[in-house]
Amino acid sequence: MTFQINDPEDIDWAYFWTRKLEAKKDRAKDWNKAAPNFGKSAKRDDYHIKLIEKIDVSKDDSLLDLGCGEGTITIPLAKRAKNVTGVDSSYKMLEILNEKAQKENVDNIKTIEKDLSQITLEDVGKHDIIVASRSLNGVLNIKETIANINEIANKYVYITLFGPNNWKIEREFYESIQKDYNEFPSHRYFFNILIDMGIHPNVENLNIGHEREYESIDEAIESGKWRLDFLNDDEKKSLYKYLEDILEENENGKLSNPNDKADWVLYWWKK
Fold first, then answer.
1. CATH of the domain at 207
2. Domain range for residue 60?
3. Where are the alpha helices (DSSP H) in the chain?
């Protein structure tokens, strides 16, 4: 099918977001399986520190964390907020979050097991602050989800999405084995969707900084970056060899590569 667009105002960015995402067959992930090791991989860089620094929340604020995972962002924010509602589709993630909160004597978190893209005002009520940390990249009904988020928020909305360099070494690996690599929709789609909805966000790169570090090649492979269930045995062997070639021991005695950095873009707006 061929599309001819005569005026940029005619572009349906939500439609193209969905089409791009549907072409990415490996977008879904078994988060219950990933949950036990997710906290370790989530703290492989200083993303959580950078994001938490940006969020304007006080002891008078209620906060909704969509795609809260095992609480890397949720628990620190709960220590600054009046109360927090954490939403995630993975029961295992929520189990770990609640266990961690109990250990840290944080008792102002309520959790809901549900797909964040289905959350509405009727489900959770109004919240002062909405955070969707690294959780909207794979959402198909993006426009509806944004509309629900905006309706729920009283004060601020904070959303992070993949930056343009987040998947650099993955792209290079797929090129090396001559296999197509379908990317997530660019965050530029997201920006235009917001503008079309009358939302004018602030946009900034979080500048995560240092490279990801690994103790071994095996740890790098199991880091969660590689969708191993979409690779056959020969491709997994190629991946091992590829990582052996590009990862080098750094000054900390760990394996890293200058192109293996987290790249996240923060969108935020005031209601």
1. 3.40.50.150
2. 11-167+184-212+260-270
3. 13-22, 31-42, 47-54, 74-78, 91-103, 121-124, 142-152, 168-176, 187-196, 217-221, 233-246
Q: How many domains does the chain have?
A: 1
Structural tokens at position 112? 């809901």
Average pLDDT along the chain? 91
User: pLDDT tens across 21-53, in order?
Assistant: 998 877 677 767 776 776 666 566 788 999 999
**168 pLDDT more than 90:** no
Which residue type occupies 59?
A: K
Q: Are 14 and 142 in contact (CB under 8 A)?
A: yes
This prediction's pTM: 0.88
58 located within any domain: yes
| CA angle centred on 32, ends 234 and 148, rounded to 5° | 115
CA distance 7 to 1: 19
Q: Are 145 and 164 in contact (CB under 8 A)?
A: no
